[in-house]
Amino acid sequence: MDIFDRIGKTATKAYQFTADKTNKLSKEAKLRINMNNKKSQINTLYKEIGKSVYRKHLDLDLEENDIIEEKIKNIDILSDEIKNISNQLLDLKDIKECKNCYSKILKEYKFCPNCGANQSENEIKNCDVQDYAEDTLEILNDEKENN
After folding, report:
1. What stretches of 58-122 show up as alpha helix (H) in DSSP?
2. Which residues, 6 or more positions from 49, have their beta carbon under 8 angstroms from its beta carbon?
């Protein structure tokens, strides 16, 4: 009976691991779709701003300044939302950006291996050059696969 218990526990662990991984991939896909939609909205706003600037240049519509300002504010809002989504994507991979140099590093690093900046809110992890090189390669490969 002991062997069946072990098989059951192993199967349960495998199922849980697969479910967690699928959940992460699903969240990542949804976040990427959301981010791409916001980027598309920004591109549309850029085009509209360009048209408004040109109309203003031709002096066809004097109220274009208000329209342009509103669209620029929308771009700022969308850009902030994209940054938030990007941070959520990094969080799913247990990665963060260095506060100083914006390098992508593991969340658990207390200091950035790239610039040495203190990442005060995280626990200490001893980091040697080999660990950093392996972690960096993994991050870059993940980014390459996702783009």
Report:
1. 64-92
2. 68, 71, 72
Helix (H, G, I), strand (E, B) or coil at 113: coil
Q: What is the pLDDT along the chain (147 residues), one digit of tens a residue?
A: 688 888 888 888 888 889 888 888 899 999 999 999 999 999 999 999 888 888 777 776 566 677 888 889 999 999 999 999 988 999 888 888 888 898 899 988 889 999 999 987 644 444 555 555 566 666 666 666 665
Tokens of 53: 């600037």
Separation between Cα atoms, residue 54 and residue 115, nearest integer Å: 44
Q: Are 120 and 134 in contact (CB under 8 A)?
A: no
Structure token digits, residue 72: 């620029």
**Radius of gyration, alpha carbons of the chain:** 23
Residue 30 contacts residue 22 (beta carbons within 8 Å): no
- Asked whether the whole model's pTM tops 0.70, one would answer no
Q: How many CB atoms lie within 10 A of CB 147?
A: 6
